[in-house]
Amino acid sequence: LIQKIAPSPQDYQEVQQGIAGFEQQVGFKIRDEFLGSLAGPMVVYSLPAGAMMEATSGAFAIMMQLNEEAKMNKAMTAIEKFVTAMAEQEAEGILQITQQQQGDTAMHVWTIAPLALLQISPTWMISNNQLVIASNPALARSALRQMSVPGMGRKSIRSQPGFQQVAQNLPDNLLGFGY
User: Fold this and answer.
1) In 3-state terms, what secondary structure has residue 107?
2) Residue 98 CB partners (closer than 8 Å, separation 6+)
3) How many helices and strands in the chain, by DSSP H and E?
4) HSE (CB half, 13 Å, CA atoms) of 77?
């Protein structure tokens, strides 16, 4: 089965060339600077539709632990510039990227006209060695507040006795867990 789904050498080379071309355009190495700056565990938080006034269609936030903020900031900023340039060429006016200060943290908000009608404005920021990506600025601000509360964000759920009891029965190769 693995041989049937494995890419051919030509397909593999084509993908590698595409990645190298993208890396040259954005000015960073995906493996070294983007993936290399991630420290390990991440938290994905989702809200159902209607749970938050600012997100009537539902919302999500992803918080990823970083080991090198500067590398991730370089990568995310480069992606932002790349997407802005593409949008200016292909879809003038459909994308507006703004930066808002939240204390010492720069919050980057991507307003995409059709999605904004659904109160979805992808947002990212880096604070306290965490990359936060959220579906809208309100949820990003909420995540930032949670991370800055004394005692919050310092203990992993994996260190809690209740979680450890449940985790004993989970498979070793589990990629995700929702509760």
Assistant:
1) strand
2) 108, 109, 111
3) 6, 6
4) 10
Residues 6+ apart with CB under 8 A from 60: 44, 45, 46, 47, 134, 135, 139
* Token code pair at residue 30: 């995906």
Look up residue 168 and give its DSSP letter.
T
Tokens of 176: 């995700």
Q: How far is CA 144 from the centre of its chain?
A: 14
Model pLDDT, residue 74: 93
Give residue 25's pLDDT band: very low, low, confident or very high (50, 70, 90). very high
How far lies 113's CA from each of 4, 72, 84, 108, in Å? Answer: 42, 27, 14, 16
> Model confidence over 98-149: pLDDT tens digits?
899 988 889 999 988 888 877 888 999 999 888 999 999 988 888 888 776 6
Distance in angstroms (rounded) separating the CA atoms of residues 30 and 36: 8
Please write down the HEC assignment for all residues of 111-124. EEHHHHCCCCCCEE
Cα angle value 81/20/85 (rounded, 5°): 20
- Between CA 30 and CA 32 the distance in angstroms is 6
